[in-house]
Amino acid sequence: MTDKPKFMMQTYIRCSQDALWDALTDPDQFQHYDFLEQTAKRTDDKVTYFMPDGTVTLYTTDIEVTPKSKLVTSFEPTWAPDAPPSRITYEIAVEGEFCCLTVLHEDLNNDPSDGTGDGWVRSIAGLKTYLETGKPAHFGGAYLMEGM
């Protein structure tokens, strides 16, 4: 058990299990719902995330993959290069025509109120909107980028 901070949220999305799994694991879909409009590139079990200007912001590595129901990855942000990786768990449960998505971000190096929680809320809101409407959704990206 760890004493480090963590963040957890759940949401229900009207979509198929396949659609949600694909959105979480297909790097080509990430740009359609990420709040900073980042793109992603997968090489084997590693994913690299890029800002629109090409700057690398984040690396993740798959730790555990149970297709269509659970994905555990590392989280290695470039904005905190000396911090040890944290861990993200995505769990998908089908409930009728909805999927319940649970996101758990553990071993954080900062309190979730320092921006981590806000980032997750924006990202998952974008994911939900993208899957339910088929249209890209970026909540607050331009606003947040002004301060960077």
UniProtKB/TrEMBL annotation:
Family affiliation: Belongs to the AHA1 family.
Protein name: Activator of Hsp90 ATPase homolog 1-like protein
Residues of the Activator of Hsp90 ATPase homologue 1/2-like C-terminal domain: 15-132
InterPro entries for this protein: ASHA1/2-like_C, START-like_dom_sf
